[in-house]
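Please review this one:
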Amino acid sequence: MSTTRKMLSRAVLLAVVAALAFAPVRAQLPTLGDSGDMSSVSERKLGERVARELYRDPDYIDDPVLIEYVEGIWRPLLAAARARGDLTNEIDERFAWQVLLGRDRIVNAFAVPGGWLGLQLGLINITATRDELASVLAHELSHVTQRHISRMMAQEKMRTPWLLAGMILGAIAASHNPEAANAVLAGTQALAMSQQLSYSRDMEREADRIGFGVLTQAGFDPHGFVGMFEKLQQASRLTDNGSYPYLRTHPLTTERVADMQTRQQLVVRPAHAAPSVEHAMITARSRVLSNPGVDGLRGFVTEAETADLAQQTVAKQAATLYAAILADVRLRDYRPAMRLVPRLAALVASDAPSARLAKLLDAEVALASGDAQHTLADVDPASPHRPDLLLAEQALLLQGRGRDVSQRLQTWVATHPRDATAWQLLARAYAMQGDSLRSIHSEAESQVALMDYAAALDRFKAAQDFARRSTSSSDHIEASIIDTRARQVQSLLREQALER
């Protein structure tokens, strides 16, 4: 069976099983703010179950530049929710509060219990400002802080959270291939129930109201809400082809649109509300990464060659040049990319955030073309910023400087243990030095970071076998650490087995 068919079979099975968790709502909505019957611990475990599958999805993407930008919006929203009292100490400490990106071009974002959020690049692609993206994240954050999924479970008196995990996964799978999912579900009760996967109007209004407060508290422009609503409202009139699954799980009503328009009129518009060049470059990156086909990439390159590009706004020019450069890199056509980089750098030189994005892109071009020295001239290996750090460490590996990489990344993973990419680079660095035991250990930790505990345990056992054959005293110390981690991962695997 092919990988694609295996993925589809798993996804459809999840859709069938999980749809049982969502019968049409009949009970009265619990008091707003009521957490229902589901504990925060159960919610966290439910979210982790979903997150494990999201990490395994081929569409999952760890792009340091996009992630840094999204987290730059997400963190102020979380801080605002704390300041407003929307986050209790219990869920603040226990929930993950992490955004996972998917490269699909569908317009979708979804909240998962336990503080996980899924965000497809297709949604980033349609945003015109940072504030519009912030409005979506604020809305989804409010679904989590108000424990909406827990409350929906309380309505149906559900006592089997794993069914809901399957429902969420089935919905995600159906958004990728709704025809295939419906073909299997047709004629079953599961189909009718799966179509009920949407928040109630009361919950949507509550997420709007609280999300609006979080957005403004964090300093974002409230017009972002209205801008996104207008885009989604137009999409709901023009298309029903499945490209906007966000509209299916978040039903948009004229009442919600009118409410947001009224609220934003009462708030002073912040000074930074104008569309930024930085955001235009970010959406350009998102569009390229979500359109990996050769024809699409060539289209980005061609757009930068149009004669009237200079007549466009600076934001439009920057976005077009950025997309063309990145597309050239993905096409492995480095010379045209190198020629365009100076044009982009000169265009955005006066705007610090945009200039940094241009420099990171220059480093990316150099690294892809094998010019490690140029990469290191653009980024600082000691930088506290993840995009700079990872580019620099890859350049150092290209130069054969594994010891330098391992020294820096050891410090990084100590404070960022869930950085799977950093662990993978650390494994390469140790292997370059001939330190096989620490290399295998790092590979295991990268799997732990991705919540693939079975794969992690396999690597830990390989490390234990290697350590038993070693005569080095330093290996014995490392072996003790590996034994402890192996027991911890084995315990996590037993917990997973009990959940099933």
